[in-house]
């Protein structure tokens, strides 16, 4: 089940972020694994904007997605799933939910930036319908902001998935 995140979820979302990020340690990217999870303030801002959703599995919150509007598109700022329930389609369900939100808000596409060569990043997003694109000015600004935070822009890629409006 996908639902809007609330303040009661915040500590669990921080925990999920740490658990999900740990995989980066296994591929020699400990600095990404050690990245701080989103702060309570950042999560509260997403919730206030109606831009954070959680996935529940067997009654427990196991994943979340934070979005923002970037260049007229619904931008996936973060999506993380607790490793114990990976591969059950919950990441895809969160992204599909964002697509529904984008349709409701007349946005034409979903976008994101991610690591090109990390298997559960760009290859994963390709699997769920994104394709690599040249950065628009708005996406370039995201990549530039990430570079200021220490992410090497040469390792990053911008991706886009058109929204598909269901027939009435
Ligand atoms: C990336 C992540 C969100 C995926 O969530 P998930 O619920 O395990 O993924 P899903 O079950 O929805 O998988 C959807 C599809 O992607 C495929 N997939 C899953 N992991 C994959 C991987 N590592 N590489 C390639 N494809 C993958 C699945 O096989 C599935 O395809 P199918 O339905 O055609 O068989 C999760 O692994 C995660 O939290 N990773 C760590 C945090 C992170 O890096 N987030 C993304 C960057 S912000």
From TrEMBL:
* CDD domains per record: NAT_SF
Residue ranges the record marks as coiled coil: none
What residue stretches are annotated with the N-acetyltransferase domain?
1-164
Does Ion transport count among this protein's keywords?
A: no
One Pfam family, please name it.
Answer: Acetyltransf_1
State the UniProt keywords alphabetically.
Acyltransferase, Transferase
InterPro entries hit by this protein: Acyl_CoA_acyltransferase (IPR016181), GNAT_dom (IPR000182)
UniProt keyword Transferase present: yes
PANTHER family registered for this protein in UniProt: PEPTIDYL-LYSINE N-ACETYLTRANSFERASE YJAB
Name of the featured protein: N-acetylglutamate synthase, GNAT family
């Amino acid at each position: 089940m996908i639902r809007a995140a609330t303040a009661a979820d915040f500590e669990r979302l921080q925990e999920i972020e740490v658990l999900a990020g740990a995989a980066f340690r296994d591929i020699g990217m400990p600095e990404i694994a050690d990245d701080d999870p989103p702060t309570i303030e950042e999560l509260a801002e997403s919730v206030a904007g109606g831009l954070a959703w959680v996935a529940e599995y067997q009654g427990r919150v196991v994943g979340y997605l934070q979005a923002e509007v970037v260049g007229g598109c619904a931008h996936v700022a973060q999506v993380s799933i607790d490793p114990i329930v990976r591969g059950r389609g919950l990441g895809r369900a969160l992204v599909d939910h964002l697509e529904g939100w984008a349709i409701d808000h007349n946005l034409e596409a979903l976008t994101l930036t991610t690591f090109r060569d990390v298997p559960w990043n760009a290859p994963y997003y390709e699997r769920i319908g994104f394709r690599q694109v040249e950065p628009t000015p708005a996406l370039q600004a995201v990549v530039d902001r990430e570079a200021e935070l220490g992410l090497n822009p040469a390792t990053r890629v911008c991706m886009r998935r058109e929204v598909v409006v269901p027939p009435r």
